Amino acid sequence: MRKKSVTVLIISSLLLSAAAHFFFIQEWFNGRFMIGPNDGLSQMAPFKKFIYDQYSQGNFFYSWSFGLGGGFYSQLAYYFSTSIIFLMTAGIVFSLETIGLISHPDLLFWINTILPVSIIRLSLIILTAVFAFRYMGIRTTAAFTGAAVYGLSVMYFRHVVFWEFFTDAMLWLPLLVIGTEKIIREGKPGWFIVAWSLMFFNNFYFAYIHLIFLFIYIAFRWIVPLSRQEYPKHKQLFLFFLGGVISFCIGAVSFIPAVYGFLHNYRPAYEEQIPFFFITDNILHASKYIILPAILVLFLFLVPLYKERTYRFFALLTILFIIFHFSPLAASAFNGFSAPQYRWEYLLSFTAGGCVAAGLQSLHKVRLNQLFLSIIISFGLYLFMAEAMTYVMGPKLMMMFEEQIDIIIQLFFLAALLLCLYVWRKHASTFFLLQLVIIISGLVIVNGYEQMTMSEKFGVDRVSRDTLQDPAYNGAEQQQLIKKIQHSEQDPLVRIDWMNPLRNNTPIVQDFNGTSLYSSILNEELLFFYWRDLQIDMGRESVSRYATLGNRANLYGLLQTNYWMREKAEAANAPFGFEPVAESAHYIAYKNTLSLPFIRTARHVFYEKELKNRSPLDKEHAMLSGVVLDKKNGKSDVPPTEKNRIDEAVIKEKNAAYDNGQLKVTKDNGGIVITPRLSSEKTKDYYVQFYIENVHGKGFAVKVNQYRTTRKRAASIYKTGIHTVLIRVPKEEHIAIQLPKGTYKLKHLKLYEEDYRELQQTAAEKSTPAKMNWDKNKISITYDNHTDERYMALPIPFEKGWQLKINNEEKEIEKANFAFIGFPLEKGNNQIELIYRPPFFTISIVLLVLGVAAAVWLIRRQSSKKQTS
């Protein structure tokens, strides 16, 4: 292709992309942003800000500020830590910041970059798709039109608004097709290796989706050969396999840590039955995933086009993916055989684009009577789908899409009319007009989708500058109180328990060390710590979040959380031992008077196995009295025990009937009231534990005195599957468990008293005589063990990647206190060095070097073969 033609394509792609973003460009000038109010503001923007802050400081792997601490390079590889588009953006931003053209980028900066980056990304997607279709023998104008069908997909805008990193996959897909075709047609593996190396590095999840696509693509290519001379199939297999292995090695530096992070996240098994076929939406008129262009529907019923191999190939793939769209089982397969997720439909957009491009190239062979038949069948299908979805969704819900349906029907008739004119006269001007209408139709649909679906129905129009400064997200009053705490506190490792409701990444947004995190990939040790071992209620059941420490004073001391901040209305739940230290008009902050040092040593050793059936309160006391280890390697001490006092309490119903473990609540906020026995004067708090489940599988809220938490419905894919709840209650005469009207399983009631004797004793002890320095991913500790302490425990979450040396000798790190780091001490002086690197990072670097060398060898080998043949 000539240089001038390439320039025209680049400009055309950029202009088309800008036109596709026209609605959001208008919104930007009106002070609104191209980002979703939920995951967009809660995850996408905060993670970009966080990663840039860490990378620009030279910290690439681990951060104490990432939730309770974690290897963000590994755990955020699903998002942006290894995203090539983000890394390129961050590199440009860092350069601008370094030379002084911009100040250090804040959250608003990253939200503002979404629109220009999206315009450039979409133009690259369209451009690479053009080259892919051109390589397959399709003329440039038809290839550009097909690429427009691919790029102007509603899924692109759904993804970029809610989960921006998803859209990168649309850029790698055409590169993968070019690489695959290069091997099949010419036996050249270079493009294939480049494409797969980028995908392995960029995102393991979409690399998996593309692997499924690759198998399907190759199978169909072998069934439908597209060129007369193709590389022998056994040699293709060799190059596919070897190229894949080499690509894996090159991308391993990102892929291996990312996959390790994914495998050491925990999601309960999806228990619902997954049907093979189920109509979920209307992909002709009003789907939130994909809307098939009218020209594609018309082409699919044009029988003469199937005589052309390239069209037949893309049409069969498109029909297969349409079937897959209506198969929850296929959606589950694309999601790793877990809960069905519809994130792969951009594959259908690509094959649809190829189908349109190939169809346009062969359209001159269609006769008018054949076209009339296609129009009749297609229009009948449009009517049928509209009626069917009205029946499924109901007339009221379908009225929401009435305007969108009218527009699409009009576009259908316009496309049909132009098809008739071209097939009748075969004029080049009509053909050009047809292609122009196809592109304009795509622009109309995506801009309408941006406005009517994304903005108006999904609340994107609510995201403005005011939203970013709203108290529900990042209010100025909250920021001032946080800064006041930080200025008064000299310890940089101290945590603050504060987050806006449902915004678990508030600590990232407001720049402080917190106790909450919202991410699809989390350290499973922390999840088990919250759900199973300590049963810490987070105020909201979720598999992808952890938050707060349940207002339990023992845990605050153990995990360096010395501040507790809430709205003043919630002050009654302040943990024991916390006293007011600062306040504003609506918020109040408390400081822990029973804080514990970051470095703790222990003479007493307990084991998880021995505490397995003990109460969480017993486990807290064991951690305060010594250290709890995962693996038993010696004699243990006798762990302390707290008595279950529920049999001594009086239980009464309130607007409810309670019998044999079943509670029927007849009025909202009904339930049971527990009146404990006359407790000791030393008792400060109660811990009440119970199993709770809605009999009909509904989601519900539970109130225990002043504390409120929520439980998910049984069908939710985000439920933990754990129904036992433990709530700390400040000492009162009565403990009321209140529920909405309904029927519940309520059993295994337990009640414990807490006097905090162990916490007070531990806090009163002298601090550990140790010196510590933490620099990025390296911790140095000097400790003189003159009292023969057995173990050192640190409130750093246990995860693979930490390496330990004591007095220059490598030692094994043990899981301590259920989810954190511990290790045995030596007598006398201990020079301790902890270094974190992503899991298998050294091996990954070796594989990278070997992969690059192997790629150079294989590409040269194949090139020399082609020259000598």
TrEMBL record:
<keyword id="KW-0472">Membrane</keyword>
<feature type="transmembrane region" description="Helical">
    <location>
        <begin position="346"/>
        <end position="364"/>
    </location>
</feature>
<feature type="transmembrane region" description="Helical">
    <location>
        <begin position="108"/>
        <end position="132"/>
    </location>
</feature>
<feature type="transmembrane region" description="Helical">
    <location>
        <begin position="138"/>
        <end position="158"/>
    </location>
</feature>
<feature type="transmembrane region" description="Helical">
    <location>
        <begin position="204"/>
        <end position="224"/>
    </location>
</feature>
<keyword id="KW-0812">Transmembrane</keyword>
<feature type="transmembrane region" description="Helical">
    <location>
        <begin position="236"/>
        <end position="263"/>
    </location>
</feature>
<dbReference type="InterPro" id="IPR018580">
    <property type="entry name" value="Uncharacterised_YfhO"/>
</dbReference>
<feature type="transmembrane region" description="Helical">
    <location>
        <begin position="283"/>
        <end position="306"/>
    </location>
</feature>
<protein>
    <recommendedName>
        <fullName>YfhO family protein</fullName>
    </recommendedName>
</protein>
<keyword id="KW-1133">Transmembrane helix</keyword>
<feature type="transmembrane region" description="Helical">
    <location>
        <begin position="431"/>
        <end position="449"/>
    </location>
</feature>
<feature type="transmembrane region" description="Helical">
    <location>
        <begin position="76"/>
        <end position="96"/>
    </location>
</feature>
<dbReference type="Pfam" id="PF09586">
    <property type="entry name" value="YfhO"/>
</dbReference>
<feature type="transmembrane region" description="Helical">
    <location>
        <begin position="313"/>
        <end position="334"/>
    </location>
</feature>
<feature type="transmembrane region" description="Helical">
    <location>
        <begin position="405"/>
        <end position="424"/>
    </location>
</feature>
<feature type="transmembrane region" description="Helical">
    <location>
        <begin position="840"/>
        <end position="859"/>
    </location>
</feature>
<feature type="transmembrane region" description="Helical">
    <location>
        <begin position="371"/>
        <end position="393"/>
    </location>
</feature>
